[in-house]
Structures are given as structure tokens and as C-alpha cells.
């Protein structure tokens, strides 16, 4: 979220808008299909790969499998592009994938003879699989596949590149063999209705099947999953198998986990169905507001944004004179008045330009201590996590739990991840949300400034539609979050975002589809979630600029959900 201009999500969002969109999976593999990339795991150094400006090197750590991986470091005007030309068959479909971690990482293919493709990740502290697919033209016999980072960002790592499809005669990787059973299966966070699982990666595996009491319940590409829909205070046995084009491994040893007795109801003071709005502590051309001017339809008001300090993890807040307060005391009085009216006022951390790094025990403690001090000083009800430059789920979990222990059970905790951050339970943001589920109020994902994304049905959806909202929300609803912890985040007006604005009627249809089963587009969920929390917008200021059209339409609709 942007402090200075309508939300465009930075250069990355512009790159996505210009063609970096996530494509669907390839068709059914044929007998001659194989990985046509050479030295796909960088076990032979950079053989068969070319990296711009000597930006790439083979390293022994971190690696996903084998003994080596690629590390490429952007510098100056170089984005650390590493590429390889592979032999392909004309008129054929190939599934392109790679495992990445570290800084921003792109994966794509050019010279396909049809539509060139690419996908990307905003960075991750653990291995994350990027996947897309392309179809070759009638005369195409070679395609260039590539990875690259982003200007001024940290180094990225790549391992286990795969260009899977008909053999083009280029002596690619050997045909796959059935992988070994996964090891290290362990149960993690447990709630009254879900159990999170993790396991060690298996060399050569492209996916994993998760079994509950002998029945397959999930298929994932990463090395973690959350099994939902479980009964409270009940023991279950879990196993995992590894898969690739050659077949499925034997199942792992069984791990038993018991669900918690009964559910949790964090933040009982927040309405069952709530509207969240971000209030701008700056002037970017939208209507300048004081908190007292924020429309009454908003139940949670996120003050945007906290500022970082020179101490890692530590935050502070500086009231911008541009918003017109005569004094800090006047601002604090407005917070108190909103709270007296039954509203929650929280402090948002991050935004498009905000970068608070929490990657150690010391920075986690610094965050918790400074956030709590600001809650005490200003009267904030809690915090919103809107970090858009990558997070470390392990240490941010520690920070939020320390803050919760100080603030008590009434603390309001919200999050606003980007769409790419919530595509699977293996992403850092999703892992964070599940790890703090017992203290989490709502995740209002930003359904804007986004490329096309996968829905929970495995199909690709483009932003700006009912289906984009419902099919992506379904991932969170089926991935372990309680329906009360899921909200739809959209711009308040066309000027509030670079792309992805939808008319309030589309938001209302999406809410009805998810809660009542009506108003759906082509995607129709298999069930409804009547306790869905509601909706969020950027921002109350852009809403006011448009005459409060968004909150006047969406607010009453949210408050009248079942």
C-alpha cells in the first residue's frame, strides 16, 4: 500500500501488468515427456546456463535437493538474468517450473512461437515453487527459459528447474524415477479443526499427496500442508507420499496429532461481519481526512503507516502535518472517540514503501516492545501487518505472540498480503497466518495490482471479476483459516489502485457467493461460509474522494451478511 500515490505495487506490479501472469498447468503427460532442461539442478555448476554480467554462481547452500543451486545477484542496472535454450517439439505444451528462495525471483520462457510466459515471487525465506506453462508454435524447435531477480533487490536462489514436455532431442535431464518416501513428517500448529504438517523435501519429487487416516485429502507442491475440516479433540493419523511423472512413492511413516478441544474466538469486540478501511497519514491527492471524518460504516480503521527505525524490528509513528491535526493530543482524542463509538483503531506496519525487517529473536522482541509502546501511547487496539517486501514467518510469529502476551486477548491483529503471498499454505504469509490463528482477527488479501492467479480449483483467474475474488478467497477458506478470518480487500475507487478496481456490486456479489451461494460467476464453491468476516478497502480517503460510494454500498451489505 502506497504512502505517496495511488497503489501501483511498485515496479513489480507494473511488470506483472505488462505480461508476467501465472498460467495454468500443462496437459496430460505423454510417454515421451521428460525434462528437456540440461543441468537443471546446477550440479555441474553453470554448465549450459548463461548469466548476465557474471551475476550467477553455483553454491552449496542453500540447496533444495542434491549438492548445488544457483545464486544470482542483481546489481546496478543488471537484474541477474540466467538463461538456457532448450530443444522442444512444435505444437507442444510444456510445464515450466523451478524452486526459488531469497529475493524477488522471476521464471519465464521466450521464443515460444505463441505467447511467451513468466511468473514471479516477491521473495521467500524458504523454497517456493514457481510454475507456469507454454505451448510452442508450429515451427518452434527451441525456446529460451530464464530466471532473473529485480533491480536493487537481494540475491535470489534457484534449484530444480524443469521444462517438462515432449523430448525435443536436446539431451535433457534423465527420465524421472519414482521418488523415495518423504522423511521428517511432523505436526505443527493444531486448532480445534485443523492440523498443520511439514516434511523434508524429496529429490526428484514434483508434488506430494497428504493422507488422513488412510484417505488422500490434499495434493501440494511444497513441503507443508494444513488439513482442515477436522473434529475437535480428536486424534488423526497422517502420512505423505512424493510424486512425479514416474509415479507415486510409498507413504511416509504415520504421525498422529490431536485437534484442540473446542474453538477460539479472538477479538470478540470486533463485529461478526466487519468493514476495514485504511486511513492515510499523508496527502497523496486523495481527500485529506482526520480520523473523526472517517465514515461510520468502517469497523476497523488501520492508521497507515508506522515508520521503521535504525534498530531492526523497531517501529515508531510520526503524525504527518499534512493531515491537519493541530496537535498529537488532538489525534489521540480522535482515536479515543472512535473507540468509544465501538470502532477498532489499529496501526498498520508496512505498505508499498515500508520495510520493517524481523528476522531474528532480537528484532522480534524489538518489534513487540515498540508496537506495544505505541498501543499504550496512542490507544491503538492492535496492529495490521502489510509488509510487502517479504517476511520471515518464524520470527514474525514470535514477534506477534510476544505482542499479544503484552496486549492481552483484546488485541486486534489483521493482515493485508498480496495475492501471490496466499497462493498456497507453503508461502511465508500463509504460514504466518496459520501460526497465529488463535490471535488473528482477519486476513484482508489485496485483490488488486495483481497478475492472473490460480483459484482453489486450479484454474487461472484474472483480477477485476467476481471469480477472482471468490476462487482466491477459497484457497484461504480451504487452507486452514476460519471463515471469520477471511476478508476481501479491494480499492475504494479506480484512483485507489493501479489495477484491479471493481464496482461495489461485484464485491457484494462475491460476498453473497461465499456466504449464501448466490451471485457467483463461473466459479461456484462447493460450500458456503456464512461467517466470512467481510471486506476491506484502500482507502477511507479514496472512498471520501468518491463521495463514500464504496462504504455506502458495501458497508450495509457486509453488516447484513448471514
TrEMBL record:
InterPro entries: CenC_carb-bd, Chitinase_II/V-like_cat, FN3_dom, FN3_sf, Galactose-bd-like_sf, GH, Glyco_hydro18_cat, Glyco_hydro_18_chit_AS
Protein EC: 3.2.1.14
Keyword flag Cell inner membrane: no
Record-annotated Fibronectin type-III domain positions: 181-262
Presence of keyword Signal: yes
UniProt KW keywords: Carbohydrate metabolism, Glycosidase, Hydrolase, Polysaccharide degradation, Signal
GO terms for MF: hydrolase activity
Residue span(s) of domain GH18: 273-562
Signal peptide: 1-23
CDD domains: FN3, GH18_chitinase_D-like
Pfam families: CBM_4_9, fn3, Glyco_hydro_18
Family, as annotated: Belongs to the glycosyl hydrolase 18 family. Chitinase class II subfamily.
Protein name: chitinase
Amino acid at each position: 500500500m502506497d504512502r505517496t500515490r495511488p497503489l501501483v505495487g511498485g515496479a513489480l506490479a507494473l511488470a506483472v501488468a505488462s505480461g508476467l501472469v501465472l498460467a495454468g498447468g500443462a496437459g496430460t503427460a505423454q510417454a515421451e515427456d521428460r525434462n528437456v532442461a540440461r543441468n537443471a539442478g546446477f550440479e555441474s555448476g553453470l554448465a549450459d546456463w548463461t548469466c548476465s554480467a557474471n551475476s550467477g554462481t553455483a553454491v552449496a547452500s542453500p540447496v533444495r535437493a542434491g549438492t548445488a543451486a544457483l545464486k544470482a545477484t542483481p546489481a546496478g542496472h543488471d537484474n541477474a538474468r540466467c538463461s538456457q535454450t532448450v530443444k522442444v517439439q512444435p505444437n507442444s505444451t510444456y510445464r515450466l517450473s523451478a524452486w526459488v528462495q531469497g529475493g524477488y525471483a522471476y521464471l519465464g520462457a521466450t521464443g515460444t512461437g505463441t505467447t511467451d510466459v513468466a511468473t514471479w515471487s516477491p521473495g521467500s525465506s524458504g523454497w517456493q515453487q514457481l510454475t507456469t506453462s507454454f505451448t510452442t508454435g508450429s515451427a518452434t524447435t527451441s525456446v529460451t527459459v530464464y530466471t532473473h531477480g529485480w533491480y536493487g533487490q537481494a540475491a535470489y536462489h534457484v534449484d530444480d528447474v524443469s521444462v517438462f514436455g515432449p523430448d525435443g532431442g536436446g539431451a535433457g535431464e534423465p527420465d524421472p524415477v519414482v521418488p523415495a518416501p518423504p522423511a521428517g513428517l511432523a505436526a505443527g500448529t493444531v486448532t480445534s479443526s485443523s492440523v498443520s504438517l511439514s516434511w523434508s523435501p524429496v529429490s526428484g519429487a514434483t508434488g506430494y499427496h497428504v493422507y488422513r487416516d488412510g484417505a488422500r485429502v490434499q495434493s501440494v507442491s511444497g513441503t507443508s500442508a494444513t488439513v482442515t475440516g477436522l473434529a475437535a479433540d480428536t486424534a488423526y493419523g497422517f502420512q505423505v507420499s512424493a510424486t512425479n511423472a514416474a509415479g507415486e512413492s510409498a507413504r511416509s511413516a504415520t504421525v498422529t496429532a490431536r485437534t484442540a478441544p473446542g474453538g477460539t474466538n479472538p477479538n470478540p469486540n470486533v463485529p461478526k461481519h466487519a468493514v476495514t478501511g485504511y486511513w492515510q497519514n499523508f496527502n497523496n491527492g486523495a481527500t485529506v481526512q482526520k480520523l473523526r471524518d472517517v465514515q461510520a460504516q468502517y469497523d476497523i480503521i488501520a492508521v497507515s503507516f508506522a515508520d521503521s527505525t535504525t534498530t531492526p524490528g523497531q517501529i515508531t509513528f510520526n503524525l504527518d502535518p499534512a493531515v491537519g491535526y493541530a496537535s498529537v493530543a488532538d489525534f489521540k482524542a480522535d482515536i479515543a472517540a472512535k473507540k468509544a463509538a465501538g470502532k477498532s483503531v489499529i496501526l498498520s506496519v508496512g505498505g508499498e514503501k515500508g520495510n520493517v525487517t524481523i528476522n531474528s529473536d532480537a528484532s522480534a522482541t524489538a518489534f513487540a516492545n515498540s508496537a506495544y509502546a505505541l498501543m499504550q501511547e496512542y490507544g491503538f487496539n492492535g496492529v495490521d501487518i502489510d509488509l510487502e517486501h517479504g517476511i520471515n514467518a518464524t520470527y514474525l510469529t514470535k514477534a506477534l505472540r510476544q505482542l499479544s502476551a503484552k496486549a492481552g486477548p483484546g488485541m486486534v491483529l489483521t493482515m493485508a498480503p498480496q495475492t501471490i503471498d496466499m497462493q498456497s499454505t507453503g508461502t511465508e504469509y500463509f504460514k504466518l497466518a496459520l501460526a497465529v490463528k488463535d490471535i488473528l482477527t482477519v486476513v484482508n488479501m489485496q485483490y488488486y495490482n495483481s497478475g492472473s492467479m490460480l483459484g482453489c480449483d486450479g484454474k487461472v483467474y484474472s483480477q477485476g471479476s467476481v471469480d477472482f475474488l471468490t476462487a482466491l478467497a477459497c484457497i484461504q477458506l480451504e487452507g486452514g483459516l476460519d471463515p471469520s478470518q477471511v476478508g476481501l480487500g479491494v480499492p475504494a475507487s479506480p484512483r485507489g489502485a493501479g489495477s484491479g478496481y471493481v464496482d461495489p456490486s461485484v464485491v457484494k456479489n462475491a460476498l453473497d457467493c461465499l456466504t449464501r451461494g448466490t451471485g457467483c460467476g463461473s466459479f461456484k464453491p462447493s460450500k458456503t461460509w456464512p461467517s466470512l468476516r467481510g471486506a476491506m478497502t484502500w482507502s477511507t480517503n479514496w472512498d471520501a474522494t468518491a463521495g463514500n460510494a464504496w462504504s455506502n454500498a458495501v458497508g450495509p451489505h457486509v453488516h447484513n451478511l448471514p
